[in-house]
Amino acid sequence: MDVTGSGELNLIDVGRFGAAVWGDGGALVQGLRLHTQGEQVAWTSVVLDSKEGAAVIALRANGAPIIWRPGPGRHNFTALQFTGKDDAANETRSNVSGIGVHAEIRIDSMWTVIDTFRNDSGPGQSLQPIAVGLGGHKQIDFVAMDWSDGVLQTEIDLIAGELHTIEEIQRQKSSCPVLFAWDGEKYEFVSDLLGVGGMGYLVAPGEYAPPRPWENFMLPLGLLRPKDGRYVLKLGEPMEEVCYLDSARLVVYDVPPGWKMTLDERMSILGPEPTGQPVFYRDEILPMRATNDRGEDVTSLLTIADHRAAPVGDVDRRFIGRLVDEHVLVLEFSEPIDARGKQPILIIDGWVEYPYSQTMFAAWQAQAEYRAPTIEALGDDGMWHIVLEQFGYPAGMPRQMSVPLVDLPAGATELRIRTNQEIYWDRISVAYAEPCPQAVRHELALHSAELSTVGFAHRTTARQRMPHYDYQNRRPFFDTRHMTGNYTAFGPVIELISETDNALAIFGPGEEIDLAFDALGDDPPAGWRRCFVFETRGWCKDMDLYTRDGETVGPLPTAGAATVQRDRLHRRYNTRYESGW
Fold first, then answer.
1. Are residue 281 and residue 423 in the same domain, yes or no?
2. Which of 399, 452, 460 is nearest to 424 (CA)?
3. What distance in Å separates the CA atoms of residue 12 and residue 10, rounded to the nearest whole number?
4. Could you count the other beta carbons within 10 Å of the beta carbon of residue 216?
5. pTM of the entire structure?
6. In the chain, how many domains are there?
7. 511 neighbors 576 (Cβ within 8 angstroms)
8. 160/194 same-domain check
9. Tens digit of pLDDT for each residue in 361-377?
């Protein structure tokens, strides 16, 4: 332990009748030979004063305990106490006592490294603060902490002589790449992408979810505007993860008056598998009444896509993204769902709170199951019949998904959705798919693609875990690390992402690919809708403790056999080595 306040650890040599403190080079520290005046049977250090550092207490075989308090001549100390509970967020990720924190402390040019695991024999884990000697300086410049759940956190400017309680920040450390679009004035946050392509995601020991290496995303109507004759999208990584982008396309669908469009898209669990293809419809019905498992009328919340979702009920504080009880929605319609002679589809706007790999491991240990949404329909026999069991959910931050409703009971007018996942249903409707031969498809030319480091967009989280990233408010550094390995060199990467060929543009925290597509020259005819679909092929991976290969960029993913073209492009572009901070 640091006895002198120099910031360097000393060796305390304990004998039967006392102790001595040795410093750097094996020299006895002057004035720090301690005598018990009797045989001692146990001793330990104790922080009685945050400014003066640790004292030593000894228990003697005969007589009262002796406390050697800090004497004169020491440098100032400050004390640190860690807790995994964040009072502001009312959440706990690591243990409340902060056991298992690894901290690296910078004071001017000096480093002190500590761990809160016990480092001596005894009946239990000490919950004493950690005394840090400042070596004559007035403050700790910064502390970098690895919490027991793998979260990296830094705190700066901790002044001397005080007890600093540091709470683990309950931030989202990983998800998947986020999308920004030029709206005519600024780059506006849209959502995240490629969550379906998460690699190494643990669902049980030795079992990993298979990634789906593509996602098509329909942008909100009216959002995207040309900038200097180009539509500009940015795909960036504001979290501790890596993205492997194979290709990106921007496709435009001009839809005639009276028609609407969605995509056959979702995170699929038990099926049916999505195709990513456009689904056109003219007819749509909203529920005339919607109630939840608690008897609350949530109709007004489910008929408008306004980022105000139906309340999910109590969250299970043990596990991210899981509810204490099942969230059930009963949707009543004014007519039989199968009455129009067309294929009914369920369209849902919403978002999900994703658990991490370690969350899934903890849930497996506790035998706490995650049950994806199941759709049921009320038959004329008065019984609920399963239509789609654990079909899936919106694959990340706010987006629209759809799923075909097959094998409905004849004449059913009520649907029921049930899940114990923390999913926020924003708007739900039933539409009727049919071909639209008048729709016009345009695939826009990719004009440029530039990889660069841009920093970290400021994230805020509104009610119901609704995320937002402010691209105009970015910081150059954040509490993130790079996985170890080769990333794509900064600069043009259009050769890597213009074709789906398993040649990957690889980028990590604080980095983005700026994509510019040639804009269409003319507006659609009056009354027509212009729908933009961003089609991506690729994968992502986080650094969770239980994610497979979560510390390294490799092994690289592929949707097929490696090719000479892929190897050539990787040798040319993927030359930037990164590791750690």
1. yes
2. 399
3. 6
4. 20
5. 0.88
6. 3
7. no
8. no
9. 999 999 999 999 999 99
